[in-house]
Amino acid sequence: MFFHTTNIMDVTDELKDYYVIFLAALVGMDVDEKVKVIQHLAKYMAPGAILMLRSALYPVVDPYVLQGLDILTIFHPVL
């Protein structure tokens, strides 16, 4: 596992080297910015790669913003 801290909008073809990408939902200040980042990831991720979105403690990412990605599951933990 590697952790990279960078502006994700500057990362393109390097994303094809990873089969799972974790994204904290705190990315972006509003829904439009979140959608922009998610669409960027979908464009450059490896075919068949998995994008894991973490919404706990952050604003929830609604499934409708995940255009271009197949939703495999949504999990809401019970606290």
Structural notes for this entry:
This protein has 79 residues and is α+β, with helices and mostly antiparallel strands. It has a domain at 8-57. Helices cover 18% and strands 13% of the residues. The chain is built from 1 helix and 2 strands, in the order E-H-E. The protein has one helix at residues 31-44, and strands at 20-24, 50-54. It has a two-stranded parallel ribbon with strand order 1-2. The radius of gyration is 12 Å and the shape is globular. It starts with 19 loop residues before the first strand and ends in a 25-residue tail after the last strand. The mean pLDDT is 83.
SSE layout and pairings?
Elements: E1 20-24, H1 31-44, E2 50-54
Keywords:
79 residues; alpha+beta; 13% strand; 1 helix
Summarize the structure.
The chain is α+β, with helices and mostly antiparallel strands and 79 residues long. The chain has one helix and two strands. Helices cover 18% and strands 13% of the residues.
Instruction: Write the element-wise H/E pattern from the N-terminal end onward.
Output: EHE
Cα-to-Cα separation, first versus last residue: 28 Å
Strand order of the largest sheet: 1-2
Biggest sheet descriptor: 2 strands, parallel
Radius of gyration: 12 Å
Low-confidence sequence ranges: none
Number of strands: 2
Number of helices: 1
Average pLDDT metric = 83
Principal-axes shape call:
globular
| Alpha-beta content class | alpha+beta
Fraction in helix: 10-25%
Strand content is: 5-15%
